[in-house]
Design goal:
Length: 135
């Protein structure tokens, strides 16, 4: 018997002490919040902590799970998290050309890929959580 395979992705809206949001500038999608694919044998929380560190140099503490997006045709589930920066220094990687914290107004102007702006707003709006969005 063959079992279906799905990719489980995660992304985090990371806030610094001033409430600014961490963004990375990726080579394909431009400005976005950090995240990636959970590796085999890795917990979801460990995966988002690792991905944020790898892409941005920032250490985080996960505050809460906020919701999930599901793309049935692509066999992808993408989880969304709220986190706070607890250490590290912004630094680029092979997945990020630039890394910086920005005010929400700036973020909403800079993030243009797909529904990433919507995801950021949903993560920041506690009244909408947890959310499930098929896409």
């Amino acid at each position: 018997m063959t079992y279906p395979r799905h990719s489980l992705l995660e992304g985090a809206v990371v806030l610094d002490a001033q409430g600014k949001i961490l963004l990375i500038k990726g080579p394909r999608r431009g400005w976005e919040f950090p995240g990636g694919i959970i590796e085999l044998g890795e917990t979801i929380e460990d995966g988002i902590i690792r991905e944020v560190k790898e892409e941005s140099g920032i250490d985080i503490e996960v505050i809460r799970f906020c919701g999930i997006y599901q793309n049935v045709s692509e066999q992808v589930c993408a989880t969304c998290w709220l986190a706070k920066a607890i250490g590290g220094t912004p630094q680029t990687s092979s997945e990020s050309l630039e890394v910086c914290f920005f005010r929400l107004e700036e973020v909403l102007d800079m993030v243009t890929w797909s529904n990433f702006r919507e995801r950021i707003l949903k993560v920041l709006n506690e009244a909408e959580q947890p959310f499930f969005v098929p896409f």
